[in-house]
Amino acid sequence: MHDAQPAVHHHTAPEGFIAKYVFSVDHKVIGLQYYGLALLAVFIGMVLSWLMRLHLGWGSLAIPGLHLLSRNGAPGNIMTPEYYLSLMTMHGTIMVFFVLTNAPLAGFGNYFLPIQVGAADMAFPRMNMMSFWVTFAAFITLMLSFFVGDGPPLSGWTAYATLSSVGGASGPGEATGQTFWAIAIALFCVGQLLGSLNFITTTLDLRAKGMTLARMPLTTWAWFITACIGLLAFADLLPACILLILDRSFGTSFFNPAGMVLNGQVTKYSGGSPLLWQHLFWFFGHPEVYIAIIPSFGIVSHILTVGARKPLLGGTRVMTGCILAAAFLSYMVWGHHMFLSGLNPFSAILFSVPTLIITIPFTVGVLMLIGTVYGAKLRFNTATLFSLGFISVFVSGGISGFFLAQPSIDIYLHATYFVVAHFHFVMAVASIFGIFAGTYFWMPKMIGRMMNETLGKVHFWLTFIGVYCIFMPMHYLGLAGNVRRYAAFTDNFLVPLIPVHKFITVAALATGAVQFIFLWNLFHTRFWGPKAPDNPWDATSLEWSTTSPPPFDNFGGRQLVVNHDAYQYGVEGPKDYIMQTDPAEAAGD
Amino acid sequence: MESDFHSKGKDIEVSESGAGAHAVIMEASPFGLQSKKLAIWLFIASDAVTFGVLLFGYSYLRLGSLDWSYPFKGASILNGFIMTVILLTSSLTMLAAVIAAKHDDKRRCLRWIGFTILLGTIFAVLHLREWFHMFGEGWAIYKNPLGGSPVFAAGFFGITGLHLLHVISGVIALSILAIRYNNGVLDKNHVETTSLYWHFVDLVWMFVFPIMYLMNAAR
Amino acid sequence: MSSEREPSMKLYAGLWIVMILIVALEVLVTYRHMPTDIFVGLILILAILEAGIGVMYFMHMKFESPNLAWTLVPITIFVLVMLDQIWPDALRLARLSMFR
Question: Which positions in chain C touch B38 (Cβ < 8 Å)?
Answer without folding.
Answer: 68
